[in-house]
Amino acid sequence: MNWDRVMESQHEKLMNHEKLLKDTLDQVNTQNVSISKDLAQVLQTQSEVKLTYADKLKQKTYDPVIIVKPKDANQPSKQTFTTLKENIDPIIREVTGMKTLRRGTIVVECKNKEAAAKLKEEAETKLGSDYILSLPKPKMPKIKIVGLNDKIGSTQMKEMILAQNQFLDEAAYINVVHITEDKRNPNRYLAYAEVDGNSYRKILSEQKLNIGWDRCRIYDAVTTRRCYKCNGFGHKATDCSKTTTCPKCAGDHDLASCKASDAEIKCSNCANAVEKLKMKLDVQHPAWSVDCPVYKKRLDQERSRIDFLGHPQH
Description:
Distance between the termini: 100 Å
Mean pLDDT: 81
Helix content: 25-40%
Radius of gyration: 31 Å
Order of helices and strands: HHEHEEHEEHEEHEEHH
Strand content: 15-25%
Largest sheet: 5 strands, antiparallel
Number of strands: 9
Strand order of the largest sheet: 6-7-5-9-8
């Protein structure tokens, strides 16, 4: 037997096996890189899909405002604006927006708190004593706490929340503003609380709070008041001076008297927007619908007044 030929043959086979193993490892490494990229993309997509409302607000800034109100309640907003225009440079004072209110009042939005303070100082000097100028504090985010087995006092509930939820900072601002019976769940209670922006994001991310022996569900509680008499927003029925309007069909009667069919459903708020503002809106829904375009617009307006990033000023 020629051992040299045998050894040469075995060596050749070994080299072929080594080459095959190297090729296989290269393919595995290439697949791992591809899988890693795919996995990273999937995780990023899932992260985007699971993005909560609180996460979306992380980049939201609050534009401080100054309220310019004439002492003369009959003065039109146009005159207030003319006075501002003649005395204030919007570029120097870093004005970012403006809107008019009733009784000649104008709200001026500024780039930051410092700009708003300087605008107020200058306006007080140049506008004289005919105007009342104020810097309102921004509203704080509000959460809804569901699933309480016991009715707890607001101070005690605040202490429980801070003591039993380690993800909250010691400086977290918790102000329990309302506790009531849960009409949908007998013998249960729900509560509403104002929180600072940082705690708001953390709480909505956790979606639960430990309070006593309860593990409570948490919801965002940005709401707007709807009048049960005229269906308008921002006031109660007891303060309403408008005529009664049906929330189901927009007729001049209350809901209890409504005989409209499903095909006759009409939202009075959207109908008014179509008629007066020439907006193109779907009106075939009741005024209480959470999908109502006018209702959603009002919610956006409420959110624009909330400081989702800051801490309450004392």
